[in-house]
Amino acid sequence: MPQLLSDLLLTIAYTVRDVLPIVAVIFGFQLFILKKPIPHLSRIVKGFVLVVLGLGFFLEGLEAALFPLGRLMAQQLTDPAFISGGGPGAVPGWWDYHWVYLFAFAIGFSTTVAEPSLLAVAIKANQVSAGTIGIWGLRIAVAIGVAIGIALGVYRIITGTPLYWYIITGYVFVLLQTLVAPRMIIALAYDSGGVTTSTVTVPLVAALGLGLAGTVPGRNPLLDGFGLIAFASLFPIMSVLAYAQLSEWQGKRKRNRNS
Amino acid sequence: MKTVKAVTATLLDSLRDLLPIIVVIAFFQIAVLRQPIPNFGEIALGIAFVVVGLTLFVQGLKLGLFPIGETMAFSFASRGKLAWLLAFAFALGFGTTVAEPALIAVAGEAALIAAQGGVIDHTQSALASYAFGLRLTVAVSVGFAIVIGVFRIVMGWPIQYLIVAGYLGVVVMTAFAPREIIGIAYDSGGVTTSTITVPLVTALGVGLASSIRGRNPMVDGFGLIAFASLTPMIFVMGYGMLF
């Protein structure tokens, strides 16, 4: 118990260190350039304190409870002894990794739902769109995108195909979707690629990638272990654009039926 | 009484956000790997920490990060000094990225790869200076990204043209960059945007788009994060080509 407490204080101290440059930039510009006092200063300070404390608890809790188990699981699932029932020497085919794909999909989906920065963007999008974009709708759309992306990224590591084939094909797909998607969603969709991969998703997904690249025969962890984050940032763009497209079609169909 | 009710409600929300991970990990542990769950008490305590942390974070978001982002956006928009706004944008992007722990980790691994590929010497100092150079490169690229993104909001340009240009940049750089750096470069786009930067930058963009006449916060306000995840890919591949 004292161990957990000192870890917690350490994590909070790290978070404070991460916040300091941001605070310096904001207050520097506010005091020296804009030369205006900050309105509701005490409330804002209180907000920053809550954010730092919250992130400290959040990260420490993940580190104490879920990350060790998740990392161990990624290792065990990618262990050749678990994959190939065919005894030593048997080279597993890509389908023998079916539990790994399912794990990648499930962990991508569930960590994205818990991602605090995605929640922040969803709250903002909900406010700005006056409720048209649901907080849950956006989060589920992004989570499905991350899940598909990571599962496909795992397939790429297992088959050893070049990363840029997938990414460039993905770009072409995003461009085509951009042409037909409703205009108001485009910027938000592009943003949702970047927000998905922070505190919760990256550690677990990185463990999965490095574990796989270390155990699949013929893969080099340094060369092939990367790229899962790139998948997790690209696919949510597609799923959010598709979500907007679907809601628009549904709206149109309803209107047509009513008129 | 009212606050107690509100706090309970947000605690329940946070627990619901966390439930999928708990279910996934429990399912794989028990049904697939067929192992018991170790240290049950510690895990329960950790989950309680996560729930409390998420709840505090969301409260702090609404009290602190969102309002300050909007206030700054509004004061810059009303005083009309574009150069200072862009300087602020750069400082925010650079300052929040240069000390980002995820980036420090990725830069260290990139230096190892470069040493393995024989690009740099496998000595402590060569590794450290390569990693530090890479960190500065990514931080400058994020600063640059927020500047472009803010400038786009001020001018009201449609985001897709800039993003398409960025994608083309990535594709062209991929053709020329050394093979070893490509995976790291693609990943570096995702690691730059931290949990504190995202809400702040989003509030800044939406605040700017709401206070400049003729801009729609929904169409024009978002997109800053998109630039911040695109430019590092191009810059890191450029760094890999130069060094």
Brief overview, please?
The complex is a heterodimer of chains A (259) and B (243). Chain A has 259 residues and is an all-alpha fold.
Beta-strand content bin of chain B: under 5%
Largest sheet of chain A: none
Number of helices of chain B: 10
Radius of gyration of chain B: 22 Å
The helix/strand series of chain B, from N terminus to C terminus, equals HHHHHHHHHH
Q: What class, by secondary structure content of chain A?
A: mainly alpha
| Assembly annotation | heterodimer
Q: What's the shape of chain B?
A: flat
Question: Helices and strands of chain B: which structural class?
Answer: mainly alpha
**Model regions low in confidence, pLDDT < 50 over at least 5 residues of chain A:** none
Question: What portion of residues of chain A belong to β-strands?
Answer: under 5%
For the CA atoms, what is the radius of gyration of chain A? 22 Å
| Shape, principal axes of CA atoms of chain A | globular
Distance from first to last alpha carbon of chain B: 62 Å
Largest interface: A-B, 104 and 107 residues
Instruction: List unreliable stretches of 5+ residues of chain B.
Output: none
Describe the overall structure:
The complex is a heterodimer of chains A (259) and B (243). By secondary structure, chain A is mainly α. The model of chain A has no long low-confidence stretch (mean pLDDT 86). Chain B is mainly alpha-helical and 243 residues long. Chain B is flat and about 50 Å long. Chain B starts with a helix and ends with a helix. The model of chain B has no long low-confidence stretch (mean pLDDT 87). Chains A and B meet through helix 1, helix 2, helix 4, helix 5 and helix 7 of A and helix 1, helix 2, helix 3, helix 4 and helix 6 of B.
